[in-house]
Design a protein that fits this description.
The structure holds two protein chains of two kinds.
Chain A: H1 2-33, H2 37-47, H3 51-68, H4 70-79, H5 81-103, H6 107-137, H7 166-190, H8 194-224, H9 226-234, H10 239-258, H11 261-283, E1 286-288, E2 298-299, H12 300-303, H13 307-334
Helix pairs in contact in A: 1-2, 1-3, 1-6, 1-7, 1-11, 3-4, 5-6, 6-7, 7-8, 7-11, 8-9, 9-11, 10-11
Chain B: H1 5-42, H2 45-78, H3 81-115, H4 122-151, E1 156-158, E2 164-166, H5 169-173, H6 176-207, H7 211-247, H8 249-256, E3 267-274, E4 279-286, H9 289-295, H10 317-346, H11 354-363, H12 365-382, E5 385-387, E6 391-392, H13 403-434
Antiparallel strand pairs in B: 1-2, 3-4, 5-6
Helix pairs in contact in B: 1-2, 1-4, 1-6, 1-12, 1-13, 2-3, 2-7, 3-4, 4-6, 6-7, 6-11, 6-12, 7-8, 7-10, 10-12
The chains are: A mainly alpha, B mainly alpha.
Chain lengths: ~350, ~450
C-alpha cells in the first residue's frame, strides 16, 4: 500500500513538474521570444488559461503527500524551511506578475511585471531542479527523523550538506535549460507569428544544450548516489521509465526535424516523466535519504499513514483524479488552436 | 514567550490576509452564476456585461487567493510539523481531497471561464461559471471540515504510537461542527459579495455613471445582503454558538466575558473585560439572555471562566472577547442596513436615496472586518489547544525551526503582503472606475 502511494505521490509531483514546467519555461523565455507588447500578450494568452491549473498539481500533490506520508511531509517541510519560504515568495511574485501584467496600463508597469515574471520563473526552474538534486543526494536526517538543511554549507555533496552544493546546482542548471527548452516547444505549438518562429528556433538551440547537461547530471548522480543506479538495474520494471526517457529524447529530436510541434512537445513531456520517474523509482523506498547514516533515512513505510486511511483514500483518489484529468482534457480541447496576435487578448 | 509564539504570529498574518480573497470569491462566484443565469433567461446583454465586469474582479481576487493560499498548506509542514505528524493521518484526508476534488475543478474552469467566452456557447460559458462556483464551495467545505476537526475532533482513535488515526471517515467528514461552521461561513461569504456588489452599484449611482448596470448591481447586491444577513444569524450563527456552548464551554465564557458562572447569565452587549479584577467594566447587559441563547432556557447554568482550570482557559481573553463582540455587533448592523436598503428597494426609491447609497458605498469593508473577527474568535477560542482537548498549541510547532528563521519569514511575508495590498487596491480601483464595457467593444 505504501509503495502504491509512493508511486501516486511521485506521479503527481512529476505531473506538476511537467505542467507547471512548460509555463515556467515560457516565463524564462518570455522576454526573449516576445519583443513587443502584442507579442508578449500572445505568450501570456498561451499560458493564461492553464498556468493556474498547472500550479494546482503542486497543491494537490502536497495534499496527497501530507495525507499518505504525514511524517515525511512534516520532516521535509520543516527541514527545508528557508528554501521553501523563498519558493513561496517566488510563486507569489510570479502569480501576481501575470495578473498585474494583464491589467497594467502603462509601459513601465508592463516592463516591470514582464521582468518579475521572467526572473521568478527562472529561479523557480532552478529551485525545482535543486529540489530533485536534494532528493537524489539525501539530506542530513538525524536519529529522530528530523533535519535542518541550511541553504549552503561547504558545497560538498555529502555529510552535513546544505540545499545548494555543486551537485544540486548542476541539477538546477539542467532543470533551467530543460524547462526553457520544454517551454519553447509549448510556445511553438500554441502560438503563431513571430513568437512561434523565435520559440521554434530557440527550441533547437536549447535542446542541443539539454543533451550534454543531461549526460553530465546523470554522471554526477551516479557519482553522488550510485545506489539509485544499482536499484534501477536491480528492478526490471523500472527499465520502462528509462525507456520512456530515452524514447522521449529521441522523439524530441526526430519530431523537431520533421517540424511536428505537438509531437515534439509531447515527447518532451515524456522525457521529463522518464527522468523524474526513473529518479524516484531508483530512490524507492526512500523519500529522503540520510547523508549521515542510511538507517536514518525517511522511507515510504516508515513515514506512511495507517493502512486503513490509505485504503480508504484510494477509494476517493481514483474517481477524483479521473475527474481532474477529464477537466484538463476538456480545458485543453476547448482552448485548442494557436494563439496569435490578430486575435487580441481574449481574456474577459 | 513560548516556543510557538512566532509560528503563531506568522500563521495569523498569512491566514488572515489570505482569507480576505476567498471570502469574496466564494460569494461572488454564486452571484456571477446568478448574473449569467439571468442573462441566459432574459436574453439581455446587460447581465452578461455585469457578469463580465465581476469576472475581472473575480480573476484578480482569485489569483491573490491562490498565491496567498499555497503558503498555508506549506506551513502545516514548515511551521507546525509536530501537529502534522500527530494529526496528519486524519486531517490529511480532507486536505488532499480539497486539492483533488475542489482545486482541479476550480482552476480548470477558471481558465475556461476567463478565456473561453468566445470559444464556448452561452450555455457552455454559464456551465463554466457554475463549475467554478461548485469548485470554490467544495474547497470551502474541505478546509472547514479540517478546521472543525481541530475544534471538535471526531472519528479518530489515539494510536499506540501516540498519534491520531482515522477511525470513522464518515463521522470525520460529516462532523456536525463542520456543517454549521460551513453554513455560517458561507453565509458570511455571500453577505460580503452582496455588500461589495451593492457598494459598486451605489458608487456608480452616486457618480451618475453606468446607470443601468448600477441598478442591476444595487438590486442584486441588496437582495443578496438581505437574505444572507438573516441566514448569518439564524439559524447558522445561533446553531454554531450552541455548538461552542456544548463542546467548548470555557471558550463561550471567555467570548462573553463571563467570569463567574451561574443561572440567568447576562448577555453583555458592550463592556470592557478587566481580567485582573475578573469583571466587565461599563457593561450594558441583557439579563438571562446568555443562558437562553446558549441552552434554551433562562434558568440554564452558564459556566464562568473561573470554573475552568487556569491551564485550560483561552490565553487571550481580552482579544477573544472583542473579536466575538465585533463580529456579533456588526452582524446586527448588517441586518439593519439590509432591512432599510431592502425596504427602499421594494419601494423603488433606493437609487434616488443618496444617504442610503452613501451608507452602502461605505459599508463594504465591514463584512471583511466581521469575518476576520469571527475567524479570530474561532481560533483564539480554541486555545490553548491546537486539536481541542487532545494536543496543546505549544506542542504543535516545528521543533527544528528556530525563531531566527521564523522572524525572517514573517518579515518577508509582511513586506510582500504590504506591497501586494497597494497593487491590488490600485488595480481594483481602476477596474471599478472604468466600469463594465458594453458588449461588442471587446
Amino acid at each position: 500500500m505504501e509503495a502504491l502511494w509512493f508511486a501516486i505521490a511521485s506521479l503527481m509531483l512529476a505531473a506538476y513538474a511537467i505542467l507547471d514546467g512548460f509555463d515556467f519555461g515560457a516565463g524564462v523565455l518570455h522576454r526573449v521570444v516576445a519583443r513587443t507588447d502584442e507579442e508578449r500578450k500572445v505568450v501570456l494568452a498561451a499560458i493564461g488559461p492553464v498556468w493556474d491549473g498547472n500550479e494546482v498539481w503542486l497543491i494537490a500533490a502536497g495534499g496527497v503527500l501530507f495525507m499518505a506520508f504525514p511524517r515525511a511531509y512534516s520532516a521535509a517541510f520543516s527541514g527545508f524551511y528557508m528554501p521553501l519560504m523563498m519558493v513561496l515568495w517566488l510563486l507569489i511574485l510570479r502569480g501576481i506578475s501575470i495578473e498585474f501584467r494583464l491589467h497594467a496600463d502603462n509601459p513601465i508597469g508592463r516592463e516591470l511585471w514582464d521582468s518579475v515574471f521572467s526572473l521568478a520563473s527562472a529561479l523557480l526552474a532552478i529551485v525545482l531542479g535543486a529540489a530533485i538534486g536534494n532528493v537524489a543526494r539525501g539530506v542530513p536526517v538525524d536519529a529522530n527523523g528530523e533535519f535542518v538543511a541550511p541553504l549552503f554549507t561547504n558545497f560538498l555533496a555529502s555529510g552535513r550538506c546544505g540545499v545548494l552544493d555543486w551537485y544540486t546546482v548542476l541539477v538546477g542548471l539542467f532543470a533551467l535549460i530543460l524547462l526553457a527548452a520544454h517551454g519553447a516547444l509549448y510556445l511553438a505549438w500554441k502560438t503563431a507569428g513571430p513568437v512561434h518562429d523565435r520559440a521554434w528556433r530557440l527550441a533547437g538551440v536549447l535542446w542541443r544544450v539539454v543533451v550534454p547537461l543531461w549526460l553530465a547530471a546523470t554522471a554526477a548522480t551516479s557519482w553522488v548516489q550510485w545506489e539509485i543506479f544499482a536499484n534501477l538495474i536491480a528492478r526490471p520494471w523500472s527499465w520502462l521509465l528509462v525507456a520512456v526517457m530515452v524514447a522521449g529524447l529521441v522523439g524530441v529530436v526526430q519530431f523537431m526535424r520533421q517540424g511536428r510541434e505537438l509531437a515534439a512537445f509531447l515527447s518532451s513531456c515524456g522525457f521529463m516523466l522518464g527522468v523524474l520517474g526513473a529518479t524516484m523509482a531508483g530512490n524507492y523506498p526512500y523519500w529522503l535519504r540520510s547523508t549521515l547514516d542510511p538507517a536514518y533515512g525517511l522511507t515510504a513505510a516508515g513515514t506512511a499513514a495507517s493502512a486503513h486511511g490509505l485504503r480508504l483514500a484510494l477509494a476517493w483518489w481514483i474517481p477524483g483524479i479521473l475527474l481532474a484529468v477529464g477537466y484538463f482534457c476538456y480545458l485543453f480541447r476547448s482552448m485548442r488552436g494557436k494563439v496569435n496576435q490578430e486575435i487580441p487578448a481574449q481574456r474577459v | 514567550m513560548d516556543q510557538v509564539f512566532w509560528h503563531r504570529i506568522q500563521f495569523i498574518i498569512t491566514v488572515t490576509y489570505h482569507y480576505l480573497f476567498p471570502q469574496l470569491t466564494m460569494g461572488l462566484a454564486l452571484l456571477i452564476v446568478v448574473m449569467k443565469g439571468l442573462s441566459l433567461k432574459n436574453r439581455d446583454a446587460l447581465y452578461n456585461e455585469s457578469a463580465r465586469f465581476w469576472a475581472r474582479i473575480f480573476g484578480l481576487n482569485f489569483a491573490m487567493g491562490v498565491v496567498t493560499g499555497i503558503p498555508l498548506e506549506f506551513q502545516f509542514g514548515t511551521n507546525w510539523s509536530r501537529f502534522s505528524d500527530y494529526a496528519g493521518d486524519v486531517i490529511g484526508q480532507t486536505l488532499a481531497m480539497e486539492g483533488v476534488f475542489a482545486f482541479f475543478l476550480e482552476s480548470a474552469f477558471l481558465g475556461l471561464f476567463l478565456y473561453g467566452e468566445r470559444k464556448l456557447s452561452a450555455r457552455g460559458h454559464f456551465a463554466a461559471a457554475f463549475a467554478l462556483f461548485l469548485g470554490s464551495w467544495i474547497s470551502g467545505y474541505f478546509i472547514i471540515a479540517t478546521n472543525a476537526f481541530m475544534q471538535h475532533p471526531v472519528g479518530y482513535t489515539l494510536g499506540e504510537d501516540g498519534r491520531l488515526h482515522l477511525a470513522d471517515f464518515a463521522a470525520f467528514v460529516l462532523n456536525p461542527w463542520a456543517l454549521w461552521q460551513y453554513a455560517h461561513n458561507m453565509a458570511a461569504s455571500v453577505l460580503t459579495a452582496g455588500f461589495v456588489v451593492a457598494a459598486v452599484g451605489a458608487y456608480w449611482s452616486l457618480m451618475g455613471k453606468h446607470a443601468r448596470h448600477a441598478r442591476v448591481n444595487l438590486r442584486l447586491g441588496m437582495i443578496t445582503a438581505a437574505v444572507s444577513s438573516v441566514l448569518l444569524v439564524f439559524p447558522t450563527g445561533d446553531e454554531h454558538g450552541k455548538m461552542v456552548a456544548r463542546h467548548q464551554p470555557a471558550t463561550l465564557a471567555a467570548m462573553e466575558g463571563v467570569f463567574q458562572g451561574g443561572p440567568f447569565a447576562e448577555l453583555a452587549i458592550i463592556g470592557q473585560p478587566d481580567v485582573a479584577a475578573r469583571k466587565l467594566e461599563n457593561p450594558i447587559v441583557l439579563p438571562g439572555m446568555l443562558s437562553f441563547l446558549a441552552y434554551g432556557t433562562f434558568g440554564s447554568v452558564v459556566q464562568g471562566i473561573d470554573d475552568f482550570p487556569e491551564a485550560d482557559r483561552p490565553g487571550n481573553i481580552e482579544l477573544l472577547y472583542y473579536a466575538y463582540h465585533i463580529m456579533a455587533g456588526l452582524g446586527t448592523l448588517f441586518m439593519l442596513t439590509a432591512a432599510v436598503g431592502g425596504f427602499l428597494l421594494w419601494k423603488g426609491r433606493l437609487e434616488r436615496t443618496r444617504w442610503m447609497l452613501w451608507i452602502l458605498l461605505l459599508a463594504f469593508p465591514f463584512p471583511y472586518i466581521a469575518t476576520t473577527a469571527g475567524w479570530w474568535t474561532a481560533e483564539l477560542g480554541r486555545q490553548p489547544w491546537i486539536v481541542y482537548g487532545l494536543l496543546r498549541t505549544e506542542a504543535g510547532g516545528s521543533s527544528s525551526v528556530h525563531p531566527g528563521n521564523v522572524v525572517f519569514s514573517i518579515l518577508g511575508f509582511s513586506g510582500l503582503y504590504i506591497l501586494l495590498s497597494f497593487l491590488f487596491v490600485d488595480h481594483l480601483r481602476r477596474q471599478i472606475v472604468a466600469g463594465p464595457e458594453p458588449s461588442g467593444s471587446h
